[in-house]
Amino acid sequence: MTVAGLSGVTKRHGETVVLDDVSLGFTENRIHGLLGRNGAGKTTIMQILTGQNFETSGKVEVFGEHPYENDRVLRDVCFIKESQKYPDMFAVHHALTAASLLYENWDAEFAAELVEEFALPPKRRIKKLSRGQMSAVGVIIGLASRAKLTFFDEPYLGLDAVARHRFYELLLADYAEHPRTIVLSTHLIDEISDLLEHVTLVDKGRVLLDGDSDELRASAVTVTGPARSVAEFAADHTELHREQLGGFLRVTLSGAIPERSPEDLHVEPVSLQQLVVRTTQQATGERGFVGAAHERGTRS
Amino acid sequence: MRRLLNVSRIQLVNLPVVLGLPLLVLGLVLLANLAIFAVINDSARASEPVNGAVVSFYFVLLSVHLQTMTQIFPFAAGLNVTRRTFFGATTLVVLGQSLAYGILLTLLRLVESGTGGWGMGLRFFGLPFLVQHNPLLQLLVYTAPLLLMSFIGVWIGIVFKRWGQPGIYTIVIGAGLLAVAFAFLVTWQQQWASVARFFVEQPSLALLFAYPFALAAVFAGAGYVTIRRAVP
């Protein structure tokens, strides 16, 4: 069941098109990845789904209703972002108390455990925390709120690699016990690719990929080997990317792993990160080409 | 309704600062005044010293609620509190706080008159034009301007959240222009006498309760309209 979705949503900011006819859906009780480069429109998508920003046109639905100014919907939604603001006079425990008042499923015990886990000083003012500690406050609120729909928008700024991995572990463990819909927006794709059950890739306000991560991983392969035989093999497939090193060639090809391939070639499934990078690069290339063709067309 | 109350409680999570800061300012101003009047020697003192320092209390309230909007609103909105709910919760807090402070000021005025002006004839709370003989009316007269100042603070805070610095400049310049236009008009029409008469002839209850209360409602309405499209 789709918990939150956009269909044909466009968002314009003056002349700039931030989202261009975006359709996507987040399914109940799954971990979704919302991936894309900086400025791709990830944050805008989450802001619109949480009623903090406004679509120019299109249909927005969360729990079957439009989220703007809708308490029935928003009380079950938690949106943790890197830029979350805290009142200057709030200490860590104030922010947690405030969050406990907002979220019905708030687990105070779990929150207290997390405060210890991330070694946060509960009485220190948030303003005085380090960047990483401040991110930890957001992470704790996001986890302990146990909202039916939780967005994490790059929540890890300033957290070191160890703390980030601890966050992923805690998220996965808590998700296993309390299934809910979680949307992770990040560009540290390699770090979280094992967590994601579904992936949506956006670029320049458009959806490039949308599917189960297993299917997506199976949708492309990398083929490595002597340049000539790789090139021959690749000729029958859609090529996403090519890189040459001396006599060796590595190509990323669209499609499942072929049942048979020449013995001198090394064929392996693509990683999520590679797929995202290649797909984005290819889209950029095509757009450039289409743009140029269009320009020629108008001139004549 | 429960959510409204919970969001009100968020604004009071840091209770000592929200409710205590204005009281601290009030206490300090009162103490400073008592100290000053105690050292001024008797001959230099007016027969019954009157002091307008209590006004500072009203301005502290304005700044407290300006910060409700610039500090707590972005936090709450970030956690998906709707603008409408946040505004409703703020209204509850403002009403409760103004009424509580109104009661406090009324009581302090009673103490002041009971102790002969803190033992030195000082009129800090019982400003001549403020004094009502009915305690209930006295309460209204203290409370209505508190409401007004709070809602002015709320509205300015929302304008800042929605339009930033340019919004604030627009308010300041706009208010200045209105004042100049008013002064120009009255001077040109030679109507200063009737302006003065208006204020003198109005019953003090209208000036100190009815008008501030009505204006508070206007600012509250303006705040509600302005917050609907504010992006935290």
Automatic annotation (TrEMBL), chain A:
Domain spans labelled ABC transporter: 4-229
GO molecular function annotation: ATP binding; ATP hydrolysis activity
Keywords: ATP-binding, Nucleotide-binding
Pfam families linked to this entry: ABC_tran (PF00005)
Top-level division of the source organism's lineage: Bacteria
Descriptive protein name: ABC-2 type transport system ATP-binding protein
Organism field: Actinopolyspora xinjiangensis
From TrEMBL, chain B:
Keywords, comma-separated and alphabetical: Membrane, Transmembrane, Transmembrane helix
TM stretches of this protein: 12-40, 52-73, 85-108, 139-160, 167-188, 208-227
The protein, known as: Uncharacterized protein
Native source organism of the sequence: Actinopolyspora xinjiangensis
